[in-house]
Amino acid sequence: DQQVKQNSPSLSVQEGRISILNCDYTNSMFDYFLWYKKYPAEGPTFLISISSIKDKNEDGRFTVFLNKSAKHLSLHIVPSQPGDSAVYFCAASALDDYKLSFGAGTTVTVRA
Amino acid sequence: GAVVSQHPSRVICKSGTSVKIECRSLDFQATTMFWYRQFPKQSLMLMATSNEGSKATYEQGVEKDKFLINHASLTLSTLTVTSAHPEDSSFYICSVWGEYEQYFGPGTRLTVT
């Protein structure tokens, strides 16, 4: 049972424009959310996180928005750069649970 | 943040043999490490939680006798795939929790022929 869902398997965006990646979750116990970036044959690297007490967290070009009532979060990348081309995973964990549940990933391609 | 290494990065083995994958936390003492598996174009699936000095906790559907986990020290966890079969071919990744996020190793590509 997939508790974290990324319904868009791929996203193509022009360089300089905004990339918006979406993630939905079903487990109401999730209270901490993370976004990871992954290149082929490499481990994921952490991008940004947000706890359920916030609705927005920003770090440079990356902003994550959380809508708890809708059980939805999104990652905004602006401006998008060619180096942003990768697979992006949304992950979630519940209070006092160290396990992460991952979405299926969204492949982002930034066109020059 | 924590630096996590894995060895080997790639391994090819014959069906029926066993393969050991090491995960090291280089600058962080980790009482708990995690092992994930990723099939092509799929998500990362948690296989088990490795606990230093005690038995690993396996996720539902993961055979503990097939995927042996040993966490003998605060910096090393090993995953042994026993009697490997072609369907075990996958990308295996370990991780440790830092202060706010999990840090992942670079992964090990296992191919069983």
Give a verbal description of the structure:
The complex is a heterodimer of chains A (112) and B (113). Helices cover 0% and strands 56% of the residues of chain A. Chain A is mainly beta and 112 residues long. The model of chain A has no long low-confidence stretch (mean pLDDT 95). Chain B has 113 residues and is mostly beta strands. In chain B, the strands form 2 sheets. In chain B, strands 2, 4, 5, 6, 9, 10 and 11 form a 7-stranded mixed β-sheet that branches. In chain B, strands 1-3-8-7 form a 4-stranded antiparallel β-sheet, with no helix packed on it. The mean pLDDT of chain B is 92.
Descriptive key words:
heterodimer; A: 112 residues; mainly beta; six-stranded mixed β-sheet; five-stranded antiparallel β-sheet; B: 113 residues; seven-stranded mixed β-sheet; four-stranded antiparallel β-sheet; 11 strands; 0% helix
Give a quick rundown of the structure.
The complex is a heterodimer of chains A (112) and B (113). Chain A has strands at 4-5, 10-14, 19-25, 30-38, 45-51, 56-59, 62-67, 72-77, 86-94, 101-102, 106-111. In chain A, a hairpin with a 6-residue loop joins strand 9 and strand 10.
Topology:
The complex is a heterodimer of chains A (112) and B (113).
Chain A: E1 4-5, E2 10-14, E3 19-25, E4 30-38, E5 45-51, E6 56-59, E7 62-67, E8 72-77, E9 86-94, E10 101-102, E11 106-111
Parallel strand pairs in A: 2-11
Antiparallel strand pairs in A: 1-3, 3-8, 4-5, 4-9, 6-7, 7-8, 9-10, 9-11
Chain B: E1 4-7, E2 10-13, E3 19-25, E4 32-38, E5 44-51, E6 57-58, E7 67-73, E8 76-81, E9 90-97, E10 102-104, E11 108-112
Parallel strand pairs in B: 2-11
Antiparallel strand pairs in B: 1-3, 3-8, 4-5, 4-9, 5-6, 7-8, 9-10, 9-11
